[in-house]
Design brief:
Layout: E1 3-4, H1 47-52, H2 56-59, E2 83-84, H3 88-95, H4 99-107, H5 114-127, H6 133-140, E3 145-150, H7 156-171, E4 175-180, E5 203-207, H8 213-220, E6 226-229, E7 237-241, H9 243-256, E8 262-266, H10 277-292, E9 301-303, H11 308-321, E10 327-330, H12 333-345, E11 355-360, H13 365-368, E12 371-374, H14 377-392, E13 400-403, E14 406-408
Parallel strand pairs: 1-2, 3-4, 3-5, 5-6, 6-7, 7-13, 8-9, 8-10, 10-11, 11-12
Antiparallel strand pairs: 12-14
């Protein structure tokens, strides 16, 4: 389907139909219709009248439309021909209101009655009218776009947060502009460049990407609302878990089962931010061990890189180094799944020889019987995006929203043999 925007005073008609036929293809320039053309009477009406009132031209499918009295687009033809997009003038004429009322009704603004709003929307849908984002931006000074910055889009937590945010924003007429800044051990992450967002977004959502102080300051200096999901500095609006409590809860589950040598598969150890999730979860792990009088040692910790393969390789390394480990707390479900694969690689039974617990509530967790600390990542993304909308509209918002977690007991943890 082809969408054409008619700008010139030229009649756009079906091609390939002989002149003078009932569906005349002869176009006319200027405001004067070719009224003497045999079998065609539709051009005697205004564009809106031709759409709504029956007539010979309308019945026989005439697509001739002459631009006059402010009309600049034409009713889309039927039967598979090229579609000509209606404009706001046509919607206003057909609904019997001003173009300003059309704009307010379709944008959900106040001072439009319910009946008028419904009529305008019905006419707009009938005519196939879609408001121009660029025109709306000029009128409001807003881009109706939110920038989302994240290290990954394929991993469970990030994918669910982004999906929740995108759907919530779409429901209020906003788009998402996505930037990824992959974090890896083998290469430094490129710095966040705020210039790519300037004048392009009304706000920015940072999803699970640890930033240094200069990067945070550069985003604040954009002068648009800023919010974080998963981790964020104390002076910025953040939607997150209590990661210290999460790490402690997971570790205490293993301690309560009777495990006394507990390993930990964490994320990147060299992250620049003290407020990142792996730091908080590691702190909770260590505090639980100290409270239980158990060993805390760097030799019991391995970096799994927050993915399955990283969890697998780091667990193999950890178990070779410390074969006395009977349980592992992994800081994400994907690393926990990797730990289970590593145990099988080494001929160990889960949970008979090794108990494993993760964090997230991954969709595949139930399939593999993974015990985890569950969280609602999708809702965190949705709520964070709505906080941004409140900030854009000038409403006060809390500096942080802390989401609850809960223990999900499955088959990957048990008492040690």
């Amino acid at each position: 389907m082809v969408f054409l925007s008619v700008r010139a005073r030229v009649c756009r008609v079906r091609r390939g139909v002989p002149q003078g036929s009932p569906t005349c293809s002869q176009g006319v320039t200027g405001g004067q219709a070719r009224r003497n053309s045999p079998g065609c009477g539709g051009c005697r009406r205004s564009p809106v009248a031709r759409r709504w009132a029956p007539g010979r031209g309308a019945r026989e499918g005439c697509l001739r439309g002459v631009r006059r009295r402010g009309a600049n687009r034409f009713w889309p033809p039927r039967g598979g021909e090229s579609l000509l997009v209606a404009g706001i003038d046509e919607v206003a004429q057909a609904a019997g209101v001003s173009t300003a009322t059309v704009s307010r009704a379709l944008r959900g603004l106040p001072n439009v009655s319910a009946a008028t709003r419904a009529r305008v929307r019905a006419v707009a849908e009938e005519l196939g009218y879609v408001p121009s984002p660029s025109a709306a931006s000029l009128a409001t000074g807003r881009t109706r776009t939110i920038g989302v910055i994240t290290p990954w889009v394929s991993r469970w937590f990030f994918a669910n947060v982004i999906e929740g945010a995108e759907r919530a924003l779409r429901s209020v007429g906003y788009d998402v502009l996505l930037y990824t800044f992959e974090v890896g051990e083998d290469r430094p992450r490129r710095k966040v460049d705020p210039t790519v967002l300037r004048r392009r977004v009304d706000g920015t959502l940072v999803v699970g990407l640890p930033l240094d102080d200069d990067e945070v300051r550069s985003l604040v200096d954009l002068g648009t609302p800023l919010a974080f999901v998963g981790s964020g500095p104390a002076d910025q609006v953040t939607v997150r878990l209590d990661d210290v409590r999460t790490g402690s809860l997971a570790t205490w589950h293993l301690i309560d089962l009777g495990h006394r040598v507990i390993g930990h598969v964490t994320g990147m150890p060299d992250l620049v931010s003290s407020w990142s999730p792996p730091v908080g979860r590691s702190t909770g792990y260590e505090r639980a061990l100290v409270a239980a009088g158990l060993e805390v040692s760097a030799g019991l910790v391995a970096n799994g890189g927050f993915d399955v393969e990283g969890g697998r390789s780091s667990t193999r390394e950890l178990l070779r180094r410390r074969p006395d480990v009977t349980a592992i707390f992994a800081a994400s479900d994907e690393m926990a799944m990797g730990a289970i694969l590593a145990a099988r690689d080494l001929g160990l039974d889960v949970p008979g020889d090794l108990s494993v617990i993760g964090v997230d509530g991954h969709d595949l967790g139930e399939l593999v019987g993974l015990t985890t600390i569950g969280q609602d990542a999708y809702q965190q993304g949705a709520d964070a995006s709505m906080l941004l909308m409140e900030m854009i509209n000038g409403a006060p918002v809390p500096e942080s929203l802390t989401y609850p977690t809960h223990l999900v007991r499955r088959a990957s943890t048990a008492r040690p043999r």
